[in-house]
């Protein structure tokens, strides 16, 4: 996990405070309870807004079970509290394999961009080469979304729905960034997205829905 968990790497920069710990370690320690973890099965489509892991909150992780021994964990890592020394921020995806011993590393970061220092590990909606994680073998796609206050959204869906979900999320983010005062369009687009109708959400956000209806 490199700098994403103090149990893996003890500091990010010498002379600076250490970083925090991952959802995997917090779950092991009992610091995250079952109610703070949303379970999404492969092939399902679900949306979650995760509190910053270091700050805590009602929902701190998404778990995607793969088989009896392995699963993914999704978390929102932000430069808050013990995580203020992290090299990056955004949606972090961990792959957990309980068949592997602690000494051999049962948890691995599924880095958005492969670098030696894990400094581009997180997934970000606004960065084109970092806005989707796909596991075709298990029919999983994970896409970061926009922020609602401090909570960062993520949608777990299937690879075949990933493109339309990304396009809709980007259109919503553009509306948020424009801050044009068109709250009705924004709220309707977000509502359609949360209802898992990504096509409708996109059409509303870009104005196609009004023209065709």
Characterize the structure shown.
By secondary structure, the protein is an alpha+beta fold. The chain folds into 2 domains: 140 residues, no CATH class; 56 residues. Helices cover 25% and strands 24% of the residues. The chain is built from 5 helices and 9 strands, in the order H-E-E-E-E-E-E-E-E-E-H-H-H-H. The chain has a 5-stranded mixed β-sheet, with no helix packed on it. Strands 2-9-8-7 form a 4-stranded antiparallel β-sheet, with helices on one face. 39% of the residues are buried.
Briefly summarize what is shown.
The chain is an alpha+beta fold.
Strands side by side in the biggest sheet: 1-3-4-5-6
Give the helices and strands as they follow along the chain. Answer: HEEEEEEEEEHHHH
Q: What does the average pLDDT come to?
A: 91
Gyration radius (Cα, Å) is: 18 Å
Q: Count the strands? A: 9
Give the helix/strand class.
alpha+beta
Distance between the termini: 49 Å
Would you identify the regions where 5 or more consecutive residues have pLDDT less than 50? none
Helix fraction bin = 10-25%
Largest sheet: 5 strands, mixed
What is the count of distinct domains? 2
């Amino acid at each position: 996990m490199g700098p994403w968990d103090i149990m893996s790497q003890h500091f990010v920069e010498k002379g600076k405070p250490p970083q925090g710990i991952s959802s995997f370690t917090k779950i092991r320690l009992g610091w995250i309870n079952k109610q703070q973890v949303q379970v999404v099965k492969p092939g399902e489509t679900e949306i979650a807004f995760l509190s910053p892991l270091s700050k805590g909150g009602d929902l701190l992780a998404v778990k995607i079970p793969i088989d009896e021994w392995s699963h993914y964990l999704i978390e929102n890592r932000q430069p808050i509290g013990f995580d203020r020394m992290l090299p990056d921020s955004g949606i972090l995806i961990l792959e957990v394999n309980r068949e592997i011993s602690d000494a051999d590393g049962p948890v691995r970061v599924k880095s958005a961009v492969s670098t030696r220092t894990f400094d581009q590990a997180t997934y970000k909606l606004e960065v084109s080469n970092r806005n989707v994680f796909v596991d075709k073998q298990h029919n999983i796609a994970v896409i970061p979304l926009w922020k609602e206050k401090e909570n960062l959204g993520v949608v777990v869906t299937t690879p075949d729905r990933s493109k339309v979900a990304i396009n809709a999320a980007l259109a919503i983010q553009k509306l948020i960034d424009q801050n044009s005062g068109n709250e009705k369009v924004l709220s309707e687009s977000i509502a359609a997205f949360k209802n898992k109708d990504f096509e409708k959400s996109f059409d509303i956000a870009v104005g196609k829905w009004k023209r065709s209806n």
